[in-house]
Write a structure and sequence with these properties.
The structure holds two protein chains of two kinds. Chain A contains ten helices and 20 strands. Chain A is an alpha+beta fold. Chain A is elongated, with a radius of gyration of 25 Å. The N terminus of chain A is likely disordered. In chain B, helix 3 crosses helix 9, helix 7 packs across helix 9 and helix 8 packs across helix 9. The radius of gyration of chain B is 25 Å and the shape is flat. Classes of the chains: A alpha+beta, B mainly alpha.
Chain lengths: 385, 308
Amino acid sequence: MPDAAEVTRSDTRSAEASAGAPTPAVEVTGVSRAFAGVRALDNVSLAIGRGEFFSLLGPSGCRKTTLLRIIAGLDLPDSGEVRLAGREVTHTPAHRRPVNTVFQSYALFPHMSVRDNVAFGLRMKKLPAPEIDRRVAEAMEKTSIAELASRRPTQLSGGQRQRVALARALVNEPEVLLLDEPLAALDLKLRRQLQIELHSLQRRLGITFILVTHDQEEALALSDRIAVVHAGRIEQIGQGRDLYERPRTRFVAQFLGTCNLLPGTVREASGETIVAVTALGELKAVLTADHRKLSTGDPCTLAVRPEKIIVREARGEVRPGEYEASIMDVVYNGPDTDLSLQLRAGGLQLQVCCLNADARAANRQPGQSLIVTALPPESLIVLED
Amino acid sequence: MPHGARSIQVLRGEALSARQRVLRILGAAGPASLWLLIFFLVPLFLIVGVSFLSRGEFGTVERPWTIEPYRRLAGYGLLGFDPLHPIILARSLALGAGTALLCLLCALPLAFFIAGLRPTWKTAALTLVIIPLWTNLLIRTYAWQLLLAPEGVLSRVAATLGLIEAGSGLYPGAAAVYLCMVCDYLPFMVLPLYASVEKLDWSIAEAAMDLGANGWNVFRHALLPQIKPGLFAGSLLVFLPATGQFVIPDLLGGAKTSMIGNAIQQQFLASGDWPFGSAIAVVSLGVVMLALWAFSRQSRGKEEMDLL
């Protein structure tokens, strides 16, 4: 049951957001950071809106955690600026920022009970004891750890520790909550359950969440927007759907899901579409607005997602734009099947994903022949590099 | 309940009969237990026993059993009440506690400093900490006599700064005693502290910072609880021998003040009063153990109370 204070607060927040140009909750401008001469973050800029669920997604070692630590104040950038709710905090120490973190290792205080762990932030603020008690009880209620109050962190399971870490951060009612791979140490089922809880908690509290994760499904399921981080730079920022359907770079296309890449050369370029010569012959693809101009003769890479490729049984004649193929490998996933196809002409390999809608689709075997139907221009993505 | 000696226990994946288990325990703990029995427990009981006997004529001990030595120790002597021995005991405890405290204040920053060094420098720094122990205690103490003498550089500097009267020395005096004590016992504090600082989980300090703790609170709530075992071990290793120390106060304190060690030595060697010497030894052991018990309750008690 959300209490009155909470509702009022999220209301004022949405009111602020709608009134004129809202100040972003977090604004990172041109932040760079090097460790022992090696560039870790390279001129990173992003703005995260109030009440947004934002994810930093990237493979391990891409420095997404470094960026999070800089926002938290646990690390300082070599250059650039960090603003929280419009206030410049680049050199403000961590304990004076209205930001709290859920650490990957949880970093619970081992010598304190769960209740004392949760109360820590409020005690540091020297709030009156009755208020601390009330807010701690409330936070433990919200994260369903009330019955663990007098236990020690060592007596808790991984999922319970995660909730304690969450309660310990949320009880401070931070402007921004930073989550550093909070679910990475949990098993799959628990992770899915906590993802749902995290999502509804964020919706209920209206606090800005910044989640660091290497799990693309997690990022897609939870976030309003995602920044894909690669080698210390932001490759692309956008809603999950945009990133998946219209990735701009090869890295984004391949990191979020799988992708068939078709290198080629531009034959014809008009404002909104191009025709490129690839191993599959001439293909027409739609350009998105933010693509740089491609002209005739430029090399380009087309990408197509496995589930956008439609196959049919090898019966009847092969129409123009269709390709004969044989199945090399079959991976049955339950709702769908992944097929590795080898095209008769040119020997090109394609990854295809078909829904197991009927018995025939569910029973494909290696060695069978199929026909790949013509690829519609909307299913083809033009990558930048 | 399994039947008698045929019972089999599984220990770390091995099936052992009762006899094998007894043999194994004897083999592992036997020699050390025997050693402790012969050289610690038996002498301890002898001392306790002697302390309740009477003094013989030529430094021997004889019956009847009496508590006279303890009465004398408490101050009720032939010449009426004189709290000389309680004062000596208190002075020794104060020396031990003071030394431990000063060592702690020096060792804490040092341990953090060494733990922050690069691996090669760490080894060098730890070696430097240990090197003073390679010299005999007496030689080190005499060296301090020379260094702190009235005409020495250190005394002159202290006199110039107005810390002591011109022409007098730092030696003999309490300052010289504590200086030498801290130098001698510092390694015993630094090493265990360093061991616990080395394996500190700094993410807990970051969590505290993140939750609004300033420098002092980060230390108090995130670091101190983690290094408590080292702190406790180091304090013990300094407090115990420092309490019994009598050579340094003797040589650097000007032989004016007696310590518990001096008192015991005097009774056994000079006065030939074994029962009284034993009584002093037993009481000081008891007081030290009491202090330790209180200290250990203080330092880890609270959390365990929570659990119970």
